[in-house]
Amino acid sequence: MPAPITEERNRLDREALLDAAERLFYARGVQAVGMDEVRAACGLPLKRIYRFFPAKEDLVVAVLRRRDRRWRGELAAHVEAVPDPRDRVLALFDWLAEWFARPGFRGCAWINAYGELGSSSEAVLAEVRAHKRAFHDQIAVWSRAAGVPAAEPVCLLAEGAIVTAAVSGDPAPAAHARRAAATLLGAP
């Protein structure tokens, strides 16, 4: 009889599965990637994958949820390292510029998932909305600290830069959005 699977083995296997699925889904799209490809990329048998996530939709939600924590965490670490509140808002766009320039940048994983599954998956739609709400709330904190009464203009600049950079393949929209945010802030 095989030895029981330890909690640590479960954790490592689940992380390997999420890593592989995230890489594939982000690079090619959720619907273009079959579970056999995910299996091959992570090295786990399909039976084990489905023990972790009974449906592909569950895997997509888990990938988005984990990516949200990491993505917003990296963003917050970058922005909050800047001492001046006005410069923090502008640092948001500096971070976006760095992200846009990374190899393999394909835009917003949540917008991509929404475009593919948002109308057919309540669970994915809920996760996309949760991410966008959390991103907005994060920007609202930074905007209020900088004296901007409403976060929506800054949010729209950030979201528009993300979409434009993804479609154009050019990181320049971050700099354009940064200049517009500086105008909003009355910054030089």
Beta-strand segment tally: 0
Series of secondary-structure elements, N-terminal to C-terminal: HHHHHHHHH
Mean pLDDT: 95
Radius of gyration: 19 Å
- Fraction in helix: over 70%
Q: Structural class, from helix and strand content?
A: mainly alpha
Distance between the termini: 70 Å
SS field, number of helical segments: 9
- Point out poorly predicted stretches: none
Describe how the helices and strands are arranged.
Blueprint: H1 7-28, H2 35-42, H3 46-52, H4 56-80, H5 85-101, H6 109-117, H7 122-145, H8 152-168, H9 172-185
Helix pairs in contact: 1-2, 1-4, 4-5, 4-7, 5-7, 5-8, 5-9, 6-7, 8-9
Explain how this protein is built:
With 188 residues, the protein is mostly helical. Helices cover 76% and strands 0% of the residues. The protein is built from 9 helices and no strands. Helix 4 runs parallel beside helix 7 and helix 8 packs antiparallel against helix 9. The longest helix is centred in the middle third of the chain and has 25 residues, at 56-80. The radius of gyration is 19 Å and the shape is elongated. The model has no long low-confidence stretch (mean pLDDT 95).
Give a brief rundown of this model.
The protein has 188 residues and is mainly alpha-helical. The protein has helices spanning 7-28, 35-42, 46-52, 56-80, 85-101, 109-117, 122-145, 152-168, 172-185.
Features:
elongated, mainly alpha, 188 residues, 9 helices, single chain
